[in-house]
User: Fold 2-dehydropantoate 2-reductase from Penicillium steckii.
Amino acid sequence: MSSPARCLNHSLPSVKNMLEVCVIGAGGVGTIAAYVLENSQRAHVTAILRSKYLLVKERGFDIESIDHGKVTNWRPHNVVSSLVAAAAEKKSYDFIVITTKALPDLTSSIIAELKPLITPGKTSLALIQNGLAIEAPFAAAFPNTPIFSSVSMIGSRLTNSTSIFHQKPDVSKIGAHFHHVDDAFKRATQHDAAALFVDVYNAGLADAKPKTNARCVLVEDIVGARWAKLLWNASFNTLCTVLRISVGELLSGPGRNTLLEPAMREIASVATAAGYGNAVSEDIIQDMLHDSPPTSTLRPSMLVDLENERPLELEVILGAPLKVAKEKGVSTPILTQVYQLLSQAQWKLTQQAGK
Amino acid sequence: MSSPARCLNHSLPSVKNMLEVCVIGAGGVGTIAAYVLENSQRAHVTAILRSKYLLVKERGFDIESIDHGKVTNWRPHNVVSSLVAAAAEKKSYDFIVITTKALPDLTSSIIAELKPLITPGKTSLALIQNGLAIEAPFAAAFPNTPIFSSVSMIGSRLTNSTSIFHQKPDVSKIGAHFHHVDDAFKRATQHDAAALFVDVYNAGLADAKPKTNARCVLVEDIVGARWAKLLWNASFNTLCTVLRISVGELLSGPGRNTLLEPAMREIASVATAAGYGNAVSEDIIQDMLHDSPPTSTLRPSMLVDLENERPLELEVILGAPLKVAKEKGVSTPILTQVYQLLSQAQWKLTQQAGK
Assistant:
């Protein structure tokens, strides 16, 4: 199933037949993804850079990576300043990779401008983003386009607008989203699009593999993998944000037992009711609870967003699973209130942004 | 019932028969209380000052008061540096007024040193503090001593250790705590102790009354009054603290409906189950919900404590009512989780204090 030989729409690229990839979002995750894809020598990347377009065009990115070492003044094959500018180039993309924050408004605005970049029968969408049900708005807008998503465990962040500090190995799971398809689309086509991407991505990790456990794994059940990551994101990430504390402080205080573990078990109950019980088994819960030491000073991504007055990925991390909980009649008293608290915090961020 | 003529143990003071009052706690509330009591010309105040003892002895307090105007270099009749020093003076007090934060550890340490200051048959305890069931530890330690408590609406705070900014008129309700009494103690004695204090306190407000609505009201049901104040303190005060936002921000955001009002209604349900339904009627709830404008920049006391890394009055404001909820079988999902979040925050404050 996962062999590139089965791809119907893609052929293995030769030097003159490189894959064309457009990467939207140039944060810690997106820039490393762009680097890895070019590093595969099987893809040309067009990076869409908004505010940092001129800076990157002038001096590129500086990357300090646990996987790839120190790379200075690195530029993607091609940089453009907007989706509209990318469309004007009239390239035909094999993959459009979306690595922005998964925020409803941002997703809507990307979708509104994405159509000219999609070549029917050729282009696939890759979503390297947090949360649940992130594929749904793309599948609704582009029902005939293969979509796959990645659950990424990479620890990579911007230290300034063009400098990346990539601290934890690039480990990800990728799997196809099997949305409603018409006759022209087979489940195999969707899967094969994901498989080709995984193949290319792993080629781009070749230099890392002797040193780290960097890897990109093709999975059949990406939704299960997304629920498993939510065990962490819907509990640690949200509670550290409400309380403005580190992972270690949450693990060491009374909230470990009164809030964290019950919140994680609520997510497990919802996932189980939705048919993903295997992905959130007791063993996995125990791993999640004990993976970080009580001395961890990690401040999760949502807390970092709050502290920097950036919008929170609240809808994909809590809103979407709570919608499933409601559909399935699963009680989630802790997560519901955490959602309400963070909605209030999000509201305040919006007010501040409006000032 | 409330006439001073009915007091068994107190006589109206003449110039040579002033009431002796010891005030513990010299924050915004305690200093104004000390001032008002001396201002009555019916009481001598001994103020117990710890860290600020020398400063006050040297230059007194500066008070800017909506009720009493600008008062500089004001000193109580007598200042001492500790409860032990007060005991060494071997005065016989009519009233010991406790105006510290209501914190379990602090209450325990005060109780441990209070006995030498209490003259059986003469001394009463006045608690000007927040929260529920604050009288219980004092009643357990001093079962034969009359105790009454005050629900104070004063807006008064320290701007530095000896400067008071008193912004909102001194309005309070005072009522006796009718704890277990033996034969020597009648309900009337307890009530009359409160009545005398109210009488003296109102005399001390005489200069304020033509200007403001400052007043001290004797009430029969102080427990009901404490529940009514909890409608505000257990909802606005706690939620603004968890969210680190002002009263206006809570009222303007989505949390107004999802968190604030339901939390207030949980307190009302508990109070009703405990027999204080009259004190938390729908009218009173509506008053509480609409009393502050959505533009209010007020940061409630618990939030100010959190921001200054001081311990929170969590047990008397949420712990005690939640204990009643448990006893009465009342469901309090929001308040229970708010308590857990604030317990985690309190734990962190303790950790920081220990560093």
